[in-house]
Amino acid sequence: xxxxxxxxxxxxxxxxxxxxxxxxxxxxxxxxxxxxxxxxxxxxxxxxxxxxxxxxxxxxxxxxxxxxxxxxxxxxxxxxxxxxxxxxxxxxxxxxxxxxxxxxxxxxxxxxxxxxx
Length: 117
Known about the structure:
Elements: H1 13-28, H2 32-70, H3 77-109
Helix pairs in contact: 2-3
């Protein structure tokens, strides 16, 4: 797998349909309090998972840096560290853009007008 290819999410059609069916279930639910509780728990879980991804990405970068430093290479250690730091910053930025796209996509699917009152 090439560098950061794991950051690209690809769903099978079955997974996309399952997710869409689950997300539409909130619109047909009769109890608005249940939907509110679900939304609150999803917001908390999203924050937890975003933080976990940030920490995991930082840890992976640390491991790669350690492996790169311990491996004999023609470039200096400083250049290697700067290269890793540059890639880490670039992929952190990509991850941020991915999260923003995901939030925009979820806002396009669910708007405030669609939620039961």
